[in-house]
Inverse folding.
C-alpha cells in the first residue's frame, strides 16, 4: 500500500477532499497486515479522533477500494475485510480466532476444464482451518 502522503496526493488528483479524518484512516491502514474490518479501522482512528464517524470510514475505505489502493474482501468471517496488499495473493482464515494470513498459491491448475467461453481474469483461494496457536490450544480455550 502506498504511504499516507501518497494516498493524499492520489485523492487530490481524483478531486476528492482531504480531511484529517481521511489522513488518519490512511495512517491506520498503512502497514496493517491484519485485514481489518471497517469497524476496527474506526476504533483505531476514533481513539485519536473521537469525532470521526463510521460512515466516513466506510466511505474512505470504499473510495480506496474503487481506486485499487486496497481490496475489499469477503472471507466468510461475517464482516467485510479490507486488505492493503493489492498484489495477487490468497488467504488463510482461522475459524477459531479469526486470524487472517496472506499466502501464495499457484492457481493455474485450478481452472475448470470447460469454461463455456468464460475468461478467468483472476482467482481467489481462501483456506479455512486453524492457525498454529488455535490448533495447539486445549479444547474450549479461546486464543483471541
Amino acid at each position: 500500500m502506498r504511504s499516507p502522503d501518497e494516498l493524499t496526493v492520489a485523492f487530490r488528483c481524483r478531486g476528492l477532499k482531504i480531511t484529517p479524518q481521511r489522513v488518519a484512516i490512511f495512517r491506520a491502514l498503512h502497514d496493517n497486515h491484519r485485514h481489518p474490518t471497517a469497524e476496527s479501522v474506526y476504533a483505531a482512528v476514533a481513539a485519536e479522533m473521537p469525532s470521526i464517524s463510521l460512515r466516513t470510514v466506510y466511505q474512505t475505505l470504499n473510495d480506496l477500494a474503487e481506486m485499487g489502493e486496497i481490496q475489499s474482501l469477503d472471507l466468510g468471517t461475517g464482516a467485510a475485510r479490507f486488505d492493503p496488499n493489492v498484489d495477487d495473493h490468497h488467504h488463510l482464515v482461522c475459524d477459531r480466532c479469526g486470524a487472517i494470513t496472506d499466502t501464495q498459491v499457484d492457481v493455474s491448475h485450478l481452472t475448470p476444464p470447460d469454461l463455456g467461453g468464460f475468461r478467468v481474469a483472476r482467482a481467489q483461494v481462501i483456506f479455512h482451518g486453524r492457525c498454529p496457536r488455535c490448533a495447539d490450544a486445549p479444547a474450549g480455550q479461546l486464543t483471541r
The first strand starts at residue 71 and ends at 73.
